[in-house]
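Internal tracking record. Fields below are filled automatically when a chain is submitted to the structure queue. Please do not edit lines marked as system-generated. If the sequence contains nonstandard residues, flag them in the REMARKS field before resubmitting.
Queue: standard
Priority: normal
Entity type: single polypeptide chain
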Amino acid sequence: MAVLSAAQIVGGVGVAVGLALSSVLVDELSGSTVISGFAGTATVLGAALLALPTAKASGSGGRRAGLSLAYAAALAGCAISVLAISLRTWPLLLAGLVLVGGGSAGGLAARYSATDLSPKDRSARHLSLVVWASTIGSVAGPNLAKPADQIGMRLGLVEKAGPFAFAALAFALALVVVIGFLRPDPLKLARELNGAREEAGGRNRTIRTAWQTLRTTPMARRALVMIAISHTAMVSVMSMTPVKLHHDGSNLDVIGLVISLHIAGMYVLSPVVGWLADKAGKVPVLVLGMALLLSASALAGTAGHRVWQVTAALVLLGLGWSCGLVAGSALVTESVPIERRPAVQGLSDLLMNVCGATGTIVAGAIVGLLGYGVLGLVVGVMVAVAGLWLAAVWRRAAPGYGTADPAPVTAGP
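SYSTEM-GENERATED OUTPUT FOLLOWS
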C-alpha cells in the first residue's frame, strides 16, 4: 500500500501538470476550439489503448510489470510532447498525449493492485486509499505548471514545454518506485495464497476471458457501466473547462486553481467514499455519485462567466466521479474470481476510457458549435438516465446486492 501510494503521488504530478495545459496548447497551435477537445481525447484514448497491455502484463508478470509498462509509456509521451511544442505542431503533440495517457492507465491499475490482498469487507477502503494518494501530486500538479514553464525557459526550452519535461521526471520517478520497491508483487502473492493460476495468452485471450466472465456476472456488468458513465461525464466537462475559462479571459493561474480544486474533489474524500461503500453498499454510493454528477452538470451549464460557479461545478464533478470509480471498481473486483480479475479490470479501464475519449470528442464539437451551456445539459441528461436505470435495477435486485458481502447474482439484464 505504501509503495503504491508513493507511485500514485509522483505519477499524479505527471498527469496533472500536462492536464492543465494540454487543451489550451492544442487550441493555440491549431487555432480551433473544436480541435482543442482532441487534447483530452488523446490522453483518455491513450489510457484506453494501454489498459489491455497493462492488464496483460499484470496477468502474466504481476502488477509490477503492468505498472512499469504504463509509466514507461507516459515518460516517452512527455518527451514527444516537448518535441512537438518546440516544433509548433499540434498533430505530433496529440500523438505524444496519447502515450502520456499511460500515466492515467498506471494510476487506474494501481487502484486495483491495492485490492489484491484486501479482506472482502475492506476492498473499497483499500482501493480508495491508493486513489486518495493521488491527491498530493494531482492537486499540486496544475499549480506547478507555471513554475515548471519558467524553469524550462531558463534551461532553453520553448514556452509551455517545461511542464511536460517536469512531468517526464515525475513519471521516471514513479517507474523507479514501482520497479525497485513493489516487492513482493501483490497479485502474484494473492494467487499463491489462493492457489490460482496465472493468465496466459495474448490480448485477444485477455478480452475473451473478460467478456466470458462478464456474461455470467451481471453485478460486474452493471458496475462497469456505471464506471464508464461516471468517467464520461467527468472527462467531457472537465476537458473543455480550461478552454472555456481561457476564452472568458482567465489567466493560467486561475485555470490551474480551478483544475486543482476539481482534482481535489476527485481524490481528497475518496477514503470517506470507500468507507461508505463498504458500510452502506456499493450501489447506494453509485446512485449518490450520479446525483452529484447531475448537480455538477446543472451548475456548469448555467455558470455563464461566473468563475466561482464553474469552480463549484468542477468540485462536485470530481466528487461524483470518485463515488463512481471507487464503488464501481470495488464491486467489479468483488464480483469476479482472482484469476480473472486482471482481464476484467483491464477491460473495465478500456471501456471506461474509450467512453471518456468519445465524450471529449463530442464535448469539443458541442462547445465549439453550441456552447459550454449545452454541454452541461447533454451530460446532465445522460447522467440522469443512468442514475434512474441503476436505481430501478437496485430495487428489483436480490437482497444484499451491492453491499459489502453481496449475495450472488447470476441472472438479469
